Amino acid sequence: MGYRIRIAIPEDEQRIRELFIEMLQTIYHTEDVEGYEAGSLDRYWTNGEERVLVAEDESVVAYLSIEVHHEQEADYIYLDDLSVTESYRNLGIGSALIHEAEGYAKEIGIQHILFHVEKSNTKAFQLYERLGYKVYRDDGNRYMMIND
Question: Is the pLDDT of residue 1 over 70?
Answer without folding.
Answer: no
